[in-house]
Design a protein that fits this description.
The protein starts with a helix and ends with a helix. The protein is built from ten helices and no strands. The radius of gyration is 18 Å and the shape is globular. It is mostly helical.
Length: about 190
């Protein structure tokens, strides 16, 4: 039996972000990459994290998963557009920045991105339970070691060991994507 949208929303409101990151985060990241353009993919993660932070501050105001998603996707799109508009303004005053030419009909490029991110998330899910939990808390939720130790009731050395094991596995498993994987997680 799969997880329902209501369960994802309820967990998000309680601060339990694992379901949110499994079900909603990958789509948000792909949407951000598409909106930011291939040459500004570094911006995608920032847009998504800002959107999640803004949603988190308003978490009690969402009455359905659809209102939450709508808010998140709007924030991501607005963040990307604001950044690209700033770049365009700089270009006009002589910075000579090259801006991405995004073609909304270019589905092939989007599918390549989707495949890459899907492979990364599949590899993360292949990690042993404890490694996966620590890795997600470190690199997806951006929690510090102390917070992870408190939440999991484990020693700092345990968190560091599990994190290193996860990183080692992912670097080996995703070696063909190394520059992207290192950019995202390390």
């Amino acid at each position: 039996m799969g997880v329902t949208d209501l369960q994802v929303l309820q967990a998000f409101k309680k601060g339990q972000l694992e379901l949110f990151y499994r079900r909603i985060y990958p789509g948000l990241l792909l949407y951000a990459v598409k909106n930011a353009g291939d040459r500004h993919d570094f911006l995608a993660e920032d847009c998504v994290q800002n959107a999640i932070f803004n949603a988190w501050k308003r978490r009690d105001s969402f009455d359905s998963i659809y209102t939450l998603k709508s808010f998140l996707y709007s924030c991501v799109q607005n963040g990307a557009l604001n950044y690209l508009n700033k770049l365009r303004t700089r270009d006009k005053v002589g910075k000579q920045l090259e801006l991405p030419v995004t073609d909304p009909d270019d589905i092939f490029c989007f599918e390549v991105e989707a495949d890459v991110f899907e492979e990364i998330f599949v590899a993360i899910e292949e990690l042993p339970d404890e490694c996966r939990r620590v890795f997600k808390m470190s690199y997806i939720e951006f929690l510090d070691i102390k917070t992870i130790c408190e939440r999991l009731s484990v020693a700092e050395s345990t968190v560091k060991t599990q994190r290193q094991r996860a990183k080692k596995y992912l670097k080996e498993r995703l070696q063909h994507l190394r520059p992207l994987v290192e950019f995202i997680f390390f």
